[in-house]
Amino acid sequence: MVYVEAFITKGKQYYRLVHTIRKGEKTTHKTKYIGKVLPPKERLEQLKREFLRELIQGKYAHLSQEDVEQLGEKRNIFQRAVKQLSKTEFAKQIEEFIIRFTYDSSKLSGVDITLRQTHLILKEGIIPQEIKQLKTVKEIENHQKGAVMLTTYRGALTLEFIQKLHRILMNGVDDALAGKLRSELKRNVKIAGTSYVPPSWQTLEKEIAQFFKWYKSEGRKLHPVELASLLHLKLVSLQPFVDGNSRIARLLMNWVLWKKGYPPANLPVSDLEEYYKTLDLYQIERQEKPFVHYIKKYVLEQE
What burial class does residue 199 get, using C-beta atoms within 10 Å of its C-beta: 0-12 exposed, 13-18 middle, 19+ buried? Predict the structure, then answer.
């Protein structure tokens, strides 16, 4: 946030713009001189925007100045809307998002279910007659539980936390895999439809350690949408578990967005081809930017 500060030099008063930046426990102030007299309100607001643009310019690897401004405005709109809702209205809105998110995320992962069936299971507690496998019901219910847990979790991103989330997703679906890394099970995996080969189980723990080193190093430097996108991208590329990796990645992406004050992003199953295309650009060609912009689009579109 940019604000105006008056200061005295040699007995005379001047004005400057100030922007406070916090990095861990350290706080720094960036300033820009205005002059002896404050300009009119409209001009002052323009100067604030220009100052902020100067600070943002070149700060982020994958987002432009315009992107950052749009995302900032989206965050402000979302936060204002949340404050206007009663607790009951807010809970209902979150419930509705989680139902849609659970449907799309499950479909992206190959679960055979419709939106109507998802609604009946999660909202009404009814198992549709067409669903013959209780495993499908458990997958839907477990995803909802995982999403709800992430709206209240305030701890750090740790391997133990990710494994706990995986146990929730796999509970009653495949208990032999629940919370267990591929390195523990000594299993390699392949991803259908791509030439990309995830790390072998022998090198997985080293790769996971590098992932957490990256997150710790870059977590405060990256824009929240960049961080959420790249966490998703890197984790799904590691494939730490035998099953459930893409759902874990999408859930944790929204956890980052949620705790940073941004609206969660739902990736519709109708956009499956584009989703996998942008994954391929990273996994095969090491391009991060297309996926960041893919996620940015859905953050901006979220109501």
Answer: buried
* 212: Cβ contacts below 8 Å, ≥ 6 apart: 157, 158, 159
Q: Give me the amino acid identity at 53.
A: R
Structurally, at CATH architecture level, domain 70-301 sits in Orthogonal Bundle (1.10)
In single-letter form, the type of residue at position 166 comes to H
Break the chain into its structural domains and give their ranges.
Answer: 2-57, 70-301
The answer to whether 128 and 82 are in contact (CB under 8 A) is: no
Q: How far is CA 247 from the centre of its chain?
A: 12
How many Cβ atoms sit within 10 Å of the Cβ of residue 14?
Answer: 15
Encoded tokens for 115: 């939106």
Cβ–Cβ under 8 Å, residues 293 and 257: no
More confident residue, 185 or 57: 185
Q: What is the pTM of this model?
A: 0.81
CA distances from 244 to 57, 87, 287 (A): 38, 32, 24
User: Is the pLDDT assigned to residue 53 strictly greater than 90?
Assistant: no
Contact indicator for 143, 132 with CB cutoff of 8 Å: no
| Predicted local distance difference test score (pLDDT) of residue 132 | 86
Report the alpha-carbon distance of residue 214 to residue 248 in Å, rounded: 18
- The whole-angstrom separation of Cα 275 and Cα 297 is 12
- Please check whether residue 99 is in contact with residue 89, taking contact to mean a CB–CB distance below 8 angstroms: no
- Segment 96-125 shows an average pLDDT of 95
